Amino acid sequence: MYIQTNTSNVPDERGYFGAYGGRFVPETLMPALEDLTTAYREAMADEEFHKRLAHLQTTYTGRPTPVSYATRLTEHLGGAQIYLKREDLAHTGAHKINNALGQALLAQRMGKKRVIAETGAGQHGVASATAAALLGLECHVYMGSVDIERQKPNVFRMQLLGANVIPVESGTKTLKDAINEAIRDWVTNVRTTFYLLGSALGPHPYPMMVRDFQSVIGVEARQQMLDQVGRLPDLCLACVGGGSNAIGLFHAFRDDETVDLIGVEAGGRGIASGEHAARFSDPDVSRPGVLQGTRSFVMQNEDGQILNTHSVSAGLDYASVGPEHAYLRDLERAFYTYATDEEALHAFQLLSELEGIIPALESAHAVAEAIKRAPTMPADSIILINMSGRGDKDLDTAMKELNR
Amino acid sequence: MSSLQAMFDNARAEGRPAFLPYFPIGYPTYDESLDAIHAMAQAGVDGFEIGIPFSDPLADGPTIQAATQQSLENGTTVRACLQAVRDLRERGVTQPMMMMSYINPLLAYGADRFAVDASAAGANGLIVPDLPPEEAGLFAEACQHAGLDLIFFLAPTSSPERIRLVADRATGFIYVVSLTGVTGARSQLPTDLTEFIGRVRQIAEQPLVLGFGISQPDHVRQIAPLVDGYIVGSALVRARTVDQIRHLARSLRAAV
To answer: Which residue among A85, A96, A112, A393 is the active-site one?
Structure first.
């Protein structure tokens, strides 16, 4: 079994993780979400579905992805041993393919020939376009025009894969607005269309389904640590935008009491600047609310209007966060911190120079936290970082930022 | 008898469905939005859907997105929208007013506080497009205490089970979405409306108010035999001046 299904008791029947989650959408979509939940449950109970997904994971995605020991980074930091879960080596260069393949198989199973997706950094768009090409589905990807500008290679990649990339000019022209447009498309074409949502966000069952499809990361990594090192890590680190790579890693470790889980949000230009996407670190502008179908922490003004966010990494530049992260934080099972643009860019360079691995700017946020923590930890302790994606897509941005 | 019920009774007695225009507060400015609503009240419309702007209106098409965005840029707050209802009452608007808002600004204001303040301002009900009955517990209670009707939606995709769920909980009326899609004027109405409304009528006894896509007197004549009321939004928002809004409201009101 390659997917860790609902072994825990969250979410409940209504899609709640404690006080977070739920299904806040227009009535037009409610029947579609009910159908999707039923179809997902049926697929999860079907051995054939698991076999097909497992087969694709092995023969197409290239799973399991390895765990690499970061020798020179460990030496350089002089503390905890650092291991990297190499989702950057998955086909398409990021963890997003895990969820995209799972949902695309589900779309096919439901007889939906048209899939739509939103994308921020472009990685989920590329993964969706890839899965659609593989399975012969029609694919439309909504992407904010600001993100199109900063992620051009991924736009061309999606087009090459046969997807139609639709620029979104409304609002802040980033991920949030792309999701709005995708939802508007879904409301309009709900009878024929499968919405392939890319993060552990949105109305139930998406946060659960995306977590389950991404949980392969943690399931593999946990076993790999036991096989390669003989024990579990002391700390797991992952960046958190919507939070799908983080929940995918954390889920397998949730009952391992000795393993600390820390999610790293985008600190942008610093919390005091107000230009960030640190939903858990700035109580002045972030508190529980409802955005795009789910109740979670939301960056908003006192009047409930959603605030503009900023991050050097498009994939973390979002005003809300997956509801299960809010729940894990309430339980104090996971903790959340942030890395600034500057810290992430430094980590981006350091990992490239010391390990020959160019991380996605998103993943570089997790590396930045390791840079802060490793020197304070004993030499026999272990940090496992989810290297959620590779950084080729970010070269333009990095060149501009680093040459400033 | 509630004012909404009286509204439906009056329209029915005249052999026509009730007309409830939508208009957002703060567009193009606070004063002009009130002038537009006041003008429509004088033109004899039956009730109002008063829009509170939201930064991420995912059920709205481009016209209302742009208008509410401008309203936000003008600094419109939830508090200002409640003040608008008070101001309109003072200016002699007597028709039922339903506040329309997405859920997050209401949560930020506080469910209980909003219901109490909206009722005190003179509003009669609340329409929340991203609040299905499953999630409405808190607001339903707050609205009930404050004497507001909380309006639920049905869509062409709603199953018989969902129609029953909404019929069990709805007060005031049921907002029936004419098509699968977002708000916005359409040149033609969907062809399966009769069948869809028929499915709803078999289960629900509440008045049915149709919205989304209605923009012309001809549309109103088509739907008049089917429903108890109709909402027009984008077509009115697109009209440039108060005179044009008054003129369009009149023709939509007089269509039947």
So the answer is: A96
Closest by Cα among B206, B112, B232 to B152: B206
Does residue A378 have a cis bond before it (omega within 30 degrees)?
no
Tally Cβ neighbours within 10 Å of residue A220.
22
Q: What number does CATH give the domain B3-251? A: 3.20.20.70
Cα(B63)–Cα(B80) distance, integer angstroms: 22
| A340 has pLDDT over 50 | yes
Show contacts of A40-46: CB within 8 Å, 24+ apart.
A40/A106, A40/A205, A40/A209, A43/A105, A43/A106, A43/A109, A44/A3, A44/A5, A44/A6, A44/A212
Instruction: Enumerate the domain spans of chain B.
Output: 3-251
Condensed to tens digits (0 to 9), the pLDDT of residues B104-160 reads 999 999 999 999 999 999 999 999 999 999 999 989 999 999 999 999 999 999 999
Q: Do B59 and A187 touch (CB under 8 A)?
A: yes
Residues from chain B that touch A36, judged by Cβ atoms under 8 A, are none
CB-side neighbour CA atoms (13 Å) of B7? 26
**Does residue A115 contact residue A148 with C-beta atoms inside 8 Å?**
no
Kindly indicate whether the ipTM for this predicted assembly is greater than 0.90, answering yes or no: yes
Q: What is the number of other CB atoms lying within 10 angstroms of the CB of residue A301? A: 13
A305 with B153: Cβ contact below 8 A: no
Q: What is the largest CA-CA distance in chain B?
A: 45
Residues 6+ apart with CB under 8 A from A318: A120, A174, A175, A176, A199, A241, A242, A277, A309
Could you tell me the two tokens for A4? 């860790």
Q: What is the DSSP string of A27-53?
A: GGGHHHHHHHHHHHHHHHT-HHHHHHH
Structure tokens at A53: 């997904």
Instruction: In whole angstroms, give the CA distance from residue A309 to residue B170.
Output: 38
Residue numbers of A between 293 and 352 with CB closer than 8 Å to B = 293, 298, 300, 302-306
Of B55, B103, B153, the CB nearest to A290: B103
Q: Which of A217, A215, A263, A268 is nearest to A240 (CA)?
A: A263
Find the radius of gyration of the CA atoms of chain B.
17
- Cα separation, A363 vs A95, in Å, equals 11
Write the DSSP string, B182-238: -S---SS--TTHHHHHHHHHHH--S-EEEESS--SHHHHHHHTTT-SEEEE-HHHHH
User: Taking chain B, what is the end-to-end CA distance rounded to the nearest angstrom?
Assistant: 26
- Quote the pTM value: 0.96
